[in-house]
Description:
single chain; alpha/beta; two-stranded parallel ribbon; 45% helix; globular; binds zinc ion
Amino acid sequence: MVGPNGDVHVYEPTPADARKLSAAKVVFVNGLGLEGWIIRLITASGSKAPIITATKGITPRDMMSKGQIVPDPHAWQSVANARIYVANIRDGLTMVDPAGAAIYDTNAKSYLAKLDTLEREVKDAIAQIPVDRRKIITTHNAFGYFGDAYGMEFIAPEGLSTESEPSARDLANIITQIRTQKVPAVFLENVTDPRLMQRIAEDTGAKIGGKLYSDALSEASGPAGSYIALMRNNVREFDTALTS
Ligand SMILES: [Zn+2]
């Protein structure tokens, strides 16, 4: 519903979305507070479709959001959790369409095998990175499950807003933070001024990483057109930033 490169946290649903929901036979949601707007939208649409929560059965980790501890909704960032999503989606489809059970089961098995391959790739790639360099600053605090599952530390930048370009003071803070915490790489999605990026890199020696895809996919033809491509893209970016 949100679409490529969209922001699921603050998505503003359209009347067309409500029509899609009222026509749906089943609705899949992530849950864990990711898409707070969807329950209101489902109610407003008059939909009677069953709602399947894809994260059902996942052990949530805690994260800080606006000064409060909340469940971290980005559970798909661990491939082990993605397997649980697949099982929940298979079961949801089978419940609303029992005649298709065999097909859903076959497709789920085939996708789970791909996830096994993906998880081996992720673990192998992280193993290439020296343990003391597995530390990254990202503006979007979305990689906690990845960090827990694969042994990487993701640090939130101090004093950086995700909405606006940093001030000189913000910049000084982040430079201090990179130095004191000895962070080898930073991914600053909200900093678009190449001169600022260059100054951070020159002043700290930290590598400025490429584009990460945390929540939304890219366009189908882009570098993160599917879940598996998204995970591969990010691991490649982490590897490039931390091993060179
Ligand atoms: Zn997010």
